[in-house]
Automatic annotation (TrEMBL):
<dbReference type="InterPro" id="IPR016064">
    <property type="entry name" value="NAD/diacylglycerol_kinase_sf"/>
</dbReference>
<keyword id="KW-0808">Transferase</keyword>
<keyword id="KW-0418">Kinase</keyword>
<dbReference type="InterPro" id="IPR017437">
    <property type="entry name" value="ATP-NAD_kinase_PpnK-typ_C"/>
</dbReference>
<protein>
    <submittedName>
        <fullName>NAD(+)/NADH kinase</fullName>
    </submittedName>
</protein>
<dbReference type="GO" id="GO:0016301">
    <property type="term" value="F:kinase activity"/>
</dbReference>
<dbReference type="InterPro" id="IPR017438">
    <property type="entry name" value="ATP-NAD_kinase_N"/>
</dbReference>
Length: 297
């Protein structure tokens, strides 16, 4: 017998909850904020709006379904199942946080604070939840491209927006860079790191680098099977070059980086706490991920 669908509500601790946890009481948190020219009333109201949205989504889950909740900090310990429908209540970035833990489960993005988020990934309101849940397995979904990095020791990292490869603390990273299938051409580089991004990431960090560089490469759409990559602040010297500093990766193309320093890190979507660590001589390949994020429109 197949299991009933399970609605997994993903949320994050609000700023108000973090303040009260740090300072002990509402009053102490209010005093702390007032000493810095802020009013706790606005923070508390945002907390109430977010919690109302979460409660409204929970109430919309069909009675025959199972239900679970997971906070952002616990995502790496939560076991998602094939029959899950993931409902992210919060900010756009929270969808990116959960994407790498999924394997094709449909995702519904609900904006917990309408008007404060761009709504690129949290496209819906809490009032839409009932209809979206009913059509979760049959409704239209955008298949968003993701990027992955795979190290030679089998460590693997997946991201929805972008993957960054560089030195700890964003200091000078030393490595050899090349494109697989490019005749073995590689270049020794010293830079601020390498950024490989998707069409979803083209609304954030990737776009910033693309714009600053004045790149002629067209930015990909979130559903395009195409990635862009940029080397940040490559340094020319007798031992390091700057000829391989930007490009695109299509289909099965891979960027190959071999470490030439004591320690480099690879992290996705700005989450440095969940990084793959590499050392001298290790190689990492970066390219399009076979899995995609199924985001309900």
């Amino acid at each position: 017998m197949s299991l009933a669908p399970r609605a997994v509500l993903v949320h994050r601790t609000t700023e108000y909850e973090e303040l009260v946890a740090r300072h002990g009481t509402h009053g102490q948190a209010a005093f702390f904020l007032s000493s810095r020219g802020r009013d706790i009333g606005e923070v508390a109201e945002r907390h109430r709006r977010t919690r109302r949205a979460l409660a409204e989504v929970a109430a919309a889950v069909p009675l025959s379904w199972r239900q679970a909740r997971v906070e952002r900090a616990d995502l790496d310990r939560f076991l998602f199942a094939p029959e899950d429908v993931v409902v992210v209540v919060g900010q756009d970035g929270l969808v990116a946080n959960v994407a790498k833990y999924l394997a094709g489960q449909p995702v519904i993005g609900v904006d917990g604070e309408p008007g404060r988020n761009p709504g690129v990934l949290v496209r819906h309101r809490a009032t839409d939840a009932a209809a979206l849940l009913r059509g979760a397995f049959t409704g239209r979904a955008d298949e968003l491209t993701m990027v992955e990095a795979v190290a030679d020791d089998t460590q693997r990292l997946v991201a929805l927006n972008e993957i960054y490869l560089g030195a700890v603390g964003h200091q000078t990273a030393r490595y050899r860079l090349g494109l697989e299938g490019d005749g073995g051409v590689v270049e020794a580089q010293a830079s601020s790191g390498v950024l490989v991004g998707t069409g979803t990431g083209a609304t954030g960090w990737l776009r910033s680098v693309w714009q600053e560089r004045g790149s002629a490469l067209p930015l990909p759409h979130p559903t395009d099977d195409r990635l862009l990559w940029f080397v940040r602040e490559a340094w020319p010297s007798p031992a390091t070059g700057t000829s391989l500093v930007a490009g695109e990766l299509t289909a099965a193309a891979r960027l190959r980086l071999t470490v030439e320093s004591e320690r480099l890190v690879v992290f996705g979507d700005g989450v440095e706490s969940d990084a793959v660590e590499l050392t001298w001589g290790q190689t990492v390949r970066v390219g399009r991920c076979a899995e995609k994020l199924r985001l309900l429109g």
